Amino acid sequence: MFQLIHYMNKESGLIFQDFSTEKLRYKVNFLYLEEGRFRTKDLKLPLLSGAKIRASCNGLILLENIPESGDLSVANPVTKQWIKLPPPAPNKLLSSRRIYASQYGFTWHPGTNEYKVLCFSERKAVCLILTLGSDKWELVNVPEQFIQLARDNTSVNGFLHSIDGDFDDGDKEDMLSMDTADKSFHKKKLPKCRGEQDKLLELGGSLSFISRIDSTAEFEIWVLKDFDKGDWIKLYSVKLDVGVKLANSRSLDSAKPICCLMNGKLVVFAVDRSFYAASTQQPWVKRIWNLKTEHCLTHLNTLVSCKTF
Fold it and tell me: Can you give the residue ranges of the F-box associated beta-propeller type domain (predicted)?
């Protein structure tokens, strides 16, 4: 089992990969806010060519393709510790001992104090689950109506969540959830539905639903207060046209929330090929010039140890 060491000394930001032409390798970068400015630092995590960051949880990252496709590892970019995860045993649904997943999940469940890695196969409607500290993967069938979890999901407190339905299918009214502790599946109502700019994100340890208001520059931020009852409350709203000049008014139609930072004090948006941070506490928006990809994850730099695995 992983042990949390100095977990309170955490630094919140975004983790992403960027190719270094100087060193001819992918760097693992960490973007954070310091004294009102966004800064980037190289975490100097040595990765083999082709390795990809798939998920982040409590300062640990899930890596794929070390050293071959389908291989998985867990690492701490700060301590440089890493462990290779065991391969699954072959069975009638898996033709090899490698994992070919359409979507990953990486969770810590407060009820069990367990970390779990999940690998979804959309084609076969199954999910492989490994509890860290175990060498056995568990095969779970994913109900057909919950297959969206295999395309996109958000991890919060041991649950995986996804908006039901494809963006092109019109309004989205339901949220699909999986409790990774007991492998149960749940469907809950979203507070509102507005279109393809909706997004579920982790915000300060809670699940949030971010939605654009009609054709305006304003986005509402709802937080799920009670999962069992399906109770949401509107916590914040942000406007993307405060203090910054977007390329044109049509840019707002491409704006999508991609993550939350600093316990929900900031929401990061991708707008065309640019990135902006909007404050939920004050009416200001700042462009993030040193972020070049939306393939980034909310991450905590911690000293969580994986040596005991």
Answer: 51-235
Q: Which residues contact 43 (CB under 8 A, 6 or more apart)?
A: 15, 27, 28, 29, 30, 77, 78, 301
- Tens digit of each residue's pLDDT (9 = 90 or more) over 169-182: 545 689 999 999 99
CA distance 98 to 76: 23
- Every domain of the chain and the residues it spans: 12-89+100-301
Q: Is 181 exposed, middle or buried (0-12, 13-18, 19+ CB in 10 A)?
A: middle
Q: Is 102 exposed, middle or buried (0-12, 13-18, 19+ CB in 10 A)?
A: middle
Residue 253's SS3 state is helix
Strands (E), 58-153: 60-64, 72-75, 82-84, 103-109, 114-121, 126-131, 137-141
Give per-residue pLDDT as tens, 172-225. Answer: 689 999 999 999 999 999 998 767 888 999 998 999 999 999 888 999 999 999
pTM higher than the cut 0.85: yes
Written as six digits, the tokens of 267 are 């929401």
What are the structure tokens assigned to 102, written together?
A: 């359409």
Q: What is the helix (H) or strand (E) element at residue 37, kind and residue range? A: strand 37-42
**Residue whose tokens read 């960027």:** 18
The string of DSSP letters for 189-201 reads: E-S---STT-EEE
**Sheet of 25-34: strands edge to edge?**
37-42, 25-34, 11-20, 296-301
Provide CATH code, domain 12-89+100-301.
2.120.10.80
> 241: how many CB neighbours lie within 10 A of its CB?
14
d(CA 156, CA 139): 22
Give the span between the Cα atoms of 194 and 49, in whole angstroms.
40
